[in-house]
Amino acid sequence: IAHIYCKDVVGVVGENFTFPVQIDQKIVETVWTKNKHKVAEWERENIPIYFGPLYNRSVLMKDGSLTIVNLEKDDAGPYEFHYWDSVADHYLNFVLVVLDSLPEPKISCNASDGELVLNCIAYFQESLIYTWKLSKDPQTYPNQELSIPLGSVDATTKATCTIKFSQTERSSEISLSQCLP
């Protein structure tokens, strides 16, 4: 009996990417293929063997999970994970999409209605997680926009916006003195 399952997964150039494999059974042997070409295999007591473009750039664990180190655009494509648990063959299919590295976020700011409004702008194919941090303030603010009442603005404060997607982060910093009218 063959069990088949398919999932789209997303990574970012330069990350270490691990396919989300969760298997409870004991695995006897595994083969990973990309576009039907073998990229990694492991049998019983042997050490894993790697092939092709993932040679020197991947790690296959005993639980079947495959990690690609320093993801490249060319790593994108269909992958199949085939394992045998001494009872049945199982097939997991993944389509890996590799996105360009994150851009550096741009910060805009303007003062209006008694507030200083900071905006963090980054163009990316997927939705990003935004956080703001102000120097001398331990708190982080989870939003693309940050409003500070003008009365409490200290011109020496620096504001940092960080964008995050998957495991990758990029930040930009601005001094609030640049925003004041």
TrEMBL record:
Which of UniProt's keywords are assigned here? Answer: Glycoprotein, Membrane, Signal
Location in the cell: Membrane
Q: Mainly resides where?
A: membrane
InterPro entries membership: CD2/SLAM_rcpt, Ig-like_dom_sf, Ig-like_fold
Q: Nucleotide-binding as a keyword?
A: no
Cross-referenced SUPFAM superfamilies: Immunoglobulin (SSF48726)
Gene3D superfamilies given for it? Immunoglobulins
| UniProt key word Signal | yes
Q: Per the record, GO CC terms? A: membrane
Q: Which domain of life is it from?
A: Eukaryota
Protein name (database record): LFA3 protein
